[in-house]
Amino acid sequence: MRDFDVAAVVSGGASGLGEATTRALAARGAAVTILDLQEDKGRALAEELGGQTTFVRTDVTDEASVQAAVDEATGKDRPLRIAINCAGVAWVQRTLARDGSPHELAPFTRTVMINLVGSFNVLRLASAAMARTEPGEDGERGVVVNTASVAAYDGQIGQIAYAASKGGIVGMTLPAARDLAAVGVRVCTIAPGLIDTPLLADLPEEARTSLAANIPFPRRLGRPEDFAQLALDIVEHGYLNGEVIRMDGALRMAPK
Predict the structure, then answer these.
(1) What's the mean per-residue pLDDT of the chain?
(2) For labelling, which of 77, 161, 239, 251 has a CA lying 20 to 30 Å from the CA of 151?
(3) Quick check: is 162 catalytic?
(4) What pLDDT sits at residue 208?
C-alpha cells in the first residue's frame, strides 16, 4: 500500500508505541482514529495533530466499544485500510510463589483478555470494514499490524501471563492472514524487544543502562519511533503477509 490517503485505527494510540504510530500515520496524511482508554491523552493528541485525527474512548475487550470506534473511522471521507494494534498491559507473577501460593487467576485472565482477545477484537471488526471497500493494487483492501513481544519466545521468570498473551498473538498471525486472504487484507505482527516506553521510563537510569547493555547491537533501548517506522514499512510492503518480525537488536532474553 503506497498511498496513505486512507483511514486508519490505532489501538492504544494515545501513548507509547501507539502514540508514535499515530504520529507517523498522521504525518503521512492518514486520517487516524485513536482507540484508547486514556481520554485526556487521547483527546490532547488528536487536538495537537488536528486534521482528521480523532479520538474514541475504547475498551478493546468490548465488542460494542470497538465497533463504535471502527464506525467512526469508516465514517471519514476515505476508506479504512489500516489497523494497528498497540493496546496492551504487562503483569509479573510466578506460576508458584516462593511460599507455594499459585498465580492469581484474575490478572492472568485480564492480561490475556486485553493483549490477545483485544487484538483479535480489533482485527476482526476492522477487517470486516476493510472487506467492504473497493480493492486497490493487487486486490489489496487493507492491512492489520499486531504487537507481540520477544517474551512470546523468550518469556522470563514471572512473565507467564504476558508471554502467553503475546504468544497467542504470534500464533494467530498466520491463520488470520490465511483467513483474510480471500478479501485482500494482510496481517503481520511485530515482536519488539526492550523499548523505551513509559513503563521503562520509570526505572532508575542505572537499571535502564543495564538493560541496554544486554542488547547486542545497537546497544540501546528501542524507541517507539523504531516501532512506528516498521509498522509503516509493513503497510507499504505489499508482499509481507502472515509474518512475525522481531525488532530487538538481536536480543535473546535470559531466564531472569
Answers:
(1) 95
(2) 239
(3) yes
(4) 75
Amino acid type, 173: T
Q: Would you state the cell numbers that stand for residue 216, as one nine-digit string?
A: 547486542
Q: Given strand 185-192, what is the order of strands in its sheet?
A: 54-57, 31-36, 7-11, 80-85, 142-147, 185-192, 244-247
User: Exposed (0-12), middle (13-18) or buried (19+): which is 175, by Cβ within 10 Å?
Assistant: exposed
Helix axes 118-130, 63-74, angle to 10 degrees: 30
Give DSSP secondary structure letters for 194-238. SB--HHHHTS-HHHHHHHHHT-SSS-S-B-HHHHHHHHHHHHH-T
pLDDT given for residue 202 in this prediction = 66
Amino acid present at 61: T
- Other Cβ atoms less than 10 A from the Cβ of 94: the count is 13
Q: What 3 state SS string does 116-156 have?
A: HHHHHHHHHHHHHHHCCCCCCHHHCCEEEEEECCCHHHHCC
Instruction: State which H helix or E strand residue 10 sits in.
Output: strand 7-11
CA 37, CA 181: separation in Å to the nearest integer? 31
Q: Is the pLDDT of residue 66 over 80?
A: yes
Q: Distances from the Cα of 78 to the Cαs of 13, 48, 104, in angstroms?
A: 20, 21, 45
Percent of the chain past pLDDT 70, that is, above it, reads 99
Does residue 236 carry a pLDDT above 80? yes
Domain ranges (residues) in the chain: 7-196+224-246
Select which of 91, 108, 120, 162 is catalytic: 162
Cα distances (angstroms) measured from residue 204 to each of 15, 199, 216, 219: 21, 12, 21, 18
Matching CATH number, 7-196+224-246, of 3.40.50.720, 3.10.129.10, 3.40.50.620, 3.40.190.10? 3.40.50.720
